[in-house]
């Protein structure tokens, strides 16, 4: 193909572009020249376009510039990628992208944009006034400019990877093809896991208090936050506030890895090779992936509850706890409370995703004039609100799960099924009984989100995750 007329025409066009950008005529295009060229050509954000325009891997010499051959090689690879993206957006395969196809593409990401907004996007690329974008217009617009909108929305609006509030029931984030090809996806997952570990350790006393109140608080003892903290410190000292934190941190890595792999497989089964899922499909895929991960690591959940509630000297450690449960209660004990746990994924994931997508849409429609980047405060606020709403909806099932996990270790406690326990709580304590421990759960949300975000950003820098 290198010798064909189409290829010769392309090389001539790229050569002319290279000469136009090479303002000092030294035979190389550097970041400064590309920035000036983009500003002259009207290419959106020159700084951002320039940073993405010359990637380090496209430059064989570490001098921050490209010669003609390197420049042509880079544009060749970029054109191929742009062509694939053009075909994926051109849904009726007529060789042109119209307003309805732009709207469909955003709807596939769960983003509702108005006809006026879609026309505005189309106008920015439509040079001949036909109200459609052909391949040449698409290529010329994006060849040196960053691929905005679709990939930006995926990149900037991650929240399940970024924020950890102690629950792993959120629908996994989407990663763009570029992130998968460059290996940035696993670095982001590692950064998220480390952030979760630090966040959970920092808020462990509140998490233990939540579990303690879920199991022991009742109408008769009127156990409150200060009373619960004081009784735990009296029984085991200040260090006892971190009981159960070790395994809570330990289960992050296997759960995140299993959920991500399951999500990718389920996603492929639902949509084939299509890159993005509709919101409803993300909910189904995310819920199934969450259920898969929970099924595999659930014994660790039971161990976490038992170690969190243990008395001083009750267990020598994690393995001793597992052995005692196995010896006294049998292997079925490791799946006590499994049904309410899996059922809790549906309201949590559904409401978290629905609220987050609604807030995201509102922001994108009102404020995303130049960039899809919401900024730290908006991302944190949307993620916190959606996760909190999900927790409120699924909390009764989480409380029933915790009590079922713990009831065999409490002397005199009735061994009830999920429905039996629900009836028992409602008859003895009313609806309020299903929300015991929710106050410390809310108290830990803001510090957990803040810690996880700060650690995540620092880990991204340490691992070399490129920011846009």
UniProtKB/TrEMBL annotation:
It is found in: Mitochondrion inner membrane. It comes from the Eukaryota. InterPro entries: EF-hand-dom_pair, EF_Hand_1_Ca_BS, EF_hand_dom, MCP, MCP_dom_sf, MCP_transmembrane. Its main location: mitochondrion. It is a multi-pass membrane protein. SMART domains: EFh (SM00054). GO terms for molecular function: antiporter activity; calcium ion binding. Pfam families: EF-hand_5, EF-hand_7, Mito_carr. Residues 37-64 are annotated as: Disordered. GO terms for biological process: adenine nucleotide transport. It catalyses: 3'-AMP(in) + ADP(out) + H(+)(out) = 3'-AMP(out) + ADP(in) + H(+)(in); dAMP(in) + ADP(out) + H(+)(out) = dAMP(out) + ADP(in) + H(+)(in); ADP(out) + diphosphate(in) = ADP(in) + diphosphate(out); 3'-AMP(out) + phosphate(in) = 3'-AMP(in) + phosphate(out). Residues 9-44, 77-112, 113-148 form the EF-hand domain. Belongs to the mitochondrial carrier (TC 2.A.29) family. Interacts with MCU. Interacts with MICU1. Electroneutral antiporter that mediates the transport of adenine nucleotides through the inner mitochondrial membrane. Originally identified as an ATP-magnesium/inorganic phosphate antiporter, it also acts as a broad specificity adenyl nucleotide antiporter. By regulating the mitochondrial matrix adenine nucleotide pool could adapt to changing cellular energetic demands and indirectly regulate adenine nucleotide-dependent metabolic pathways. Also acts as a regulator of mitochondrial calcium uptake and can probably transport trace amounts of other divalent metal cations in complex with ATP. This is Mitochondrial adenyl nucleotide antiporter SLC25A23. It comes from Muntiacus reevesi (Reeves' muntjac).
């Amino acid at each position: 193909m290198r010798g064909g007329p189409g290829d010769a025409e392309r090389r001539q066009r790229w050569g002319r572009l290279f000469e136009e950008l090479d303002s000092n005529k030294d035979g190389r295009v550097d970041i400064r020249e590309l920035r000036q060229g983009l500003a002259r050509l009207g290419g959106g954000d020159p700084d951002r376009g320039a940073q993405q325009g010359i990637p380090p891997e496209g430059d064989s010499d570490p001098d921050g510039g490209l010669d003609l051959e390197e420049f042509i090689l880079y544009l060749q690879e970029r054109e191929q990628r742009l062509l694939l993206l053009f075909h994926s957006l051109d849904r009726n395969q007529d060789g042109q992208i119209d307003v309805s196809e732009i709207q469909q593409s955003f709807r596939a990401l769960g983003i509702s944009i108005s006809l006026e907004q879609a026309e505005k996007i189309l106008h920015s690329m439509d040079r001949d006034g036909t109200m459609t974008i052909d391949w040449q217009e698409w290529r010329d617009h994006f060849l040196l400019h960053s691929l905005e909108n679709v990939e930006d929305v995926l990149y900037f609006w991650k929240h399940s990877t970024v924020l950890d509030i102690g629950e792993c029931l959120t629908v996994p984030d989407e990663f763009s093809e570029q992130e998968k090809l460059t290996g940035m996806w696993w670095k982001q997952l590692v950064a998220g896991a480390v952030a979760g570990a630090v966040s959970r350790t920092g808020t462990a006393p509140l998490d233990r208090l939540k579990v303690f109140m879920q199991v022991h608080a009742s109408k008769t003892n009127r156990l409150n936050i200060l009373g619960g903290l004081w009784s735990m410190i009296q029984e085991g000292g200040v260090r006892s506030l971190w009981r159960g934190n070790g395994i809570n941190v330990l289960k992050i890595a296997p759960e995140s890895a299993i959920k991500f792999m399951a999500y990718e497989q389920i996603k492929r089964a639902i949509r084939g090779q299509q890159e993005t899922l509709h919101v409803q499909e993300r909910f189904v895929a995310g819920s199934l992936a969450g259920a898969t991960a929970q099924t595999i690591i659930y014994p660790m959940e039971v161990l976490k509850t038992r170690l969190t509630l243990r008395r001083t000297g009750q267990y020598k450690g994690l393995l001793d706890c597992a052995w005692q449960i196995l010896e006294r209660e049998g292997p079925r004990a490791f799946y006590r409370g499994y049904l309410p746990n899996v059922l809790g994924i549906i309201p949590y994931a559904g409401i978290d995703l629905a609220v987050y997508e609604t807030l995201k849409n509102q922001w994108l429609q009102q404020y995303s004039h130049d960039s899809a980047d919401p900024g730290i405060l908006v991302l944190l606020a949307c993620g916190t609100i959606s996760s909190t709403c999900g927790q409120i909806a699924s909390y009764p099932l989480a409380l029933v799960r915790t009590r079922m996990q713990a009831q065999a270790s409490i002397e005199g406690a009735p061994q009830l099924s999920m429905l039996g326990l629900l009836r028992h709580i409602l008859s003895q304590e009313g609806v309020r009984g299903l929300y015991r421990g929710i106050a410390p759960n809310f108290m830990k949300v803001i510090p957990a989100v803040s810690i996880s975000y700060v650690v995540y950003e620092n880990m991204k820098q340490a691992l070399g995750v490129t920011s846009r």
